[in-house]
Specification:
By secondary structure, the chain is an all-alpha fold. Helices cover 62% and strands 2% of the residues. It has helices at residues 5-12, 17-29, 31-38, 40-43, 94-97, 105-133, 136-153, 159-186, 193-217, 221-227, 246-251, 255-269, 297-322, 331-340, 342-355, 358-378, 386-417, 420-445, 454-469, 491-501; strands at residues 49-51, 59-60, 63-64, 66-67, 82-84. The longest helix is centred in the last third of the chain and has 32 residues, at 386-417.
Length: 519
């Protein structure tokens, strides 16, 4: 009969020396791409402005103007009449370097979004290459582009050079992320698979905290960009020790290589390899394209609701991150606090998804995140009162924390809602929508120029609306993951309606909670 991969892992070690060393290696691999997701918070920071000394033109209401009280005033006077002021933030940024103000202000917002634009445009083709030729074919080439193009961007002398470099970095970020997250869960046994995935999320949060520490001590954008890239060149020594996906080998009829990887795990873990042969899985039903997601009204509504929810999660997560500088007080402390909150949020993801179900976890925390953001919008900004600043910072932290729980949980939920034959297409579709949400985040934050309540108010309201829309989606906890659906006879509609008709707290007697995440 033979043994499956998971059954063999139970014999040769589910979490032994091999798995621990590879998880540590994968944690190192995610440093460079993670830095680029949010380093523009500091590299693209805009300092307040002030009138130059002895200016005869730069007066607002009869007094010298200073700060950001009036965005339009400085744009209506001669550029030589005002300058960027000293403040507790970065000494320089791309805003001051390339003078991205007034009519050119949108260029600064575009620079913040360019990484996410690259991710949106190129991620799906990279995924197709990875599926066809293996995980490693995109992993290390993508890391090479991220590190070396990111390093080169520190020496850009023109705005367009910096912008193009950001696009190329963003275009390959998921070419690195996807293989790392896939491999981190494939080489551990089923008992430790949720833990291995959570370790990667914790590494993500720790890297964001390290970015805040680096930016606090390094106040020039070029040096900070160098530090985000140059130190991580050493990760290429891991190429030799990074195994290819066992399951990819099996689906591409490379059984001998799959067994070779498993024997390496047994050798490193000092376990005896079982005598049974590796069981070859039956051929799966051919995967369907994104078009199949819209082959009936029920499927289309389900896909669109998920897409909107992913879009809002992406917008609010990155919007709350970029908006941390507007909460009041130290931008470094605010950024660190809104990053630190992700650590307990990851614990809540693991606990709540199994205790309360995926549906309740996503909806409840998205509503709480929306309420927290809305509260931030109601507290006056730009006021020196300590109670107002503390209130906005706490609200910002809670908003970021709750949306982190929602964002990480919906990865699990959508992966279980989409049937196996459409899972890749479905996840690619909603993933692109989340990145479009990330693209919009810097522009949403800049709505403060119209009215200070708009950024967090808009994010909060949309988060609640998206959460309520998820009420009609099915719960998936403890239930077998759908493998196929027949788009010709609307079996998919029956499948979804049956799920909706079941009690959310009801668990399948034949399936353990969480099994769907492994399908």
């Amino acid at each position: 009969m033979g043994k499956t991969v998971d059954e063999i892992l139970e014999v040769i070690g589910q979490m032994g020396r091999f798995q621990i060393s590879r998880l540590a290696m994968f944690c190192c691999l995610v440093f460079a791409p993670t830095f680029h997701l949010l380093n523009m918070f500091f590299i693209g920071a805009e300092a307040p402005w002030q009138c130059v000394k002895n200016s005869t033109e730069c007066k607002l209401n009869g007094t010298f103007a200073a700060g950001d009280d009036d965005y339009n005033f400085r744009c209506n006077i001669n550029r030589s009449e005002w300058e960027f002021a000293d403040y507790e933030g970065p000494k320089d940024s791309i805003i001051s370097q390339f003078d991205l103000v007034c009519d050119d202000a949108f260029k600064g917002w575009l620079a913040k979004s360019m990484v996410y634009i690259g991710m949106t445009v190129v991620t799906i083709p990279l995924g197709m290459i990875s599926d066809r030729y293996g995980r490693l074919i995109t992993l290390y080439p993508s890391l090479f582009v991220i590190i070396f193009v990111g390093f080169a961007s520190a020496f850009a002398t023109e705005y367009w050079q910096f912008l193009v470099s950001r696009f190329f970095v963003g275009s390959v970020i998921y070419g690195a992320y996807f293989p790392i997250f896939i491999l981190s869960g494939e080489f551990v046994g089923p008992k430790y698979r949720p833990l291995s995935q959570t370790v990667m999320w914790f590494a993500f949060s720790v890297i964001l905290l390290l970015l805040a520490l680096m930016a606090f001590f390094v106040r020039t954008w070029r040096t900070l960009m160098i530090l985000c890239n140059a130190p991580w060149v050493f990760v290429f020594i891991f190429w030799k020790f990074t195994p290819e996906s066992i399951r990819w080998y099996m689906t591409h009829e490379k059984i001998e290589k799959a067994e070779g990887e498993l024997r390496d795990i047994a050798r490193v873990n000092r376990k005896e390899y079982p005598q049974e042969i590796l069981k070859i899985p039956p051929s799966s039903t051919k995967s369907l394209s994104c078009i199949a997601l819209f082959s009936s009204w029920t499927l289309a509504i389900s896909a669109l609701i998920q897409a909107f929810t992913w879009f809002i999660n992406g917008m609010v997560y990155y919007g709350a991150s970029y908006g941390a500088s507007d909460l009041g007080g130290s931008m470094y402390l605010n950024y660190a606090l809104t990053s630190l909150i992700e650590i307990p949020a990851n614990f809540l993801v693991v606990d709540n998804c199994e205790r309360f179900g995926r549906k309740k976890t996503v909806i409840f925390h998205m509503i709480l995140g929306g309420i927290a953001c809305f509260v931030v919008s109601l507290i006056p900004a730009g006021v020196d009162r300590t109670d107002f600043i503390v209130g906005r910072v706490i609200g910002g932290m809670l908003g970021k924390g709750f949306i982190t729980v929602s964002f990480n949980s919906i990865y699990v939920w959508s992966g279980e809602i989409f049937p196996t034959v459409a899972r890749n297409s479905g996840m690619a579709f909603v993933g692109v929508m989340s990145r479009i949400g990330a693209v919009s985040a810097p522009f949403v934050v800049e709505l403060k120029r119209i009215h200070p309540t708009l950024p967090f108010g808009l994010m909060g309201g949309l988060a609640v609306i998206a959460a309520l829309g998820c009420l009609i989606l099915p719960e998936t906890r403890g239930r077998p993951t759908a493998e196929v659906y027949d788009t010709n006879n609307d079996a998919a509609e029956e499948f979804i309606l049956q799920r909706n008709g079941r009690n959310d707290d009801e668990e399948s007697p034949t399936e353990d909670a969480g099994k769907g995440t492994e399908a």
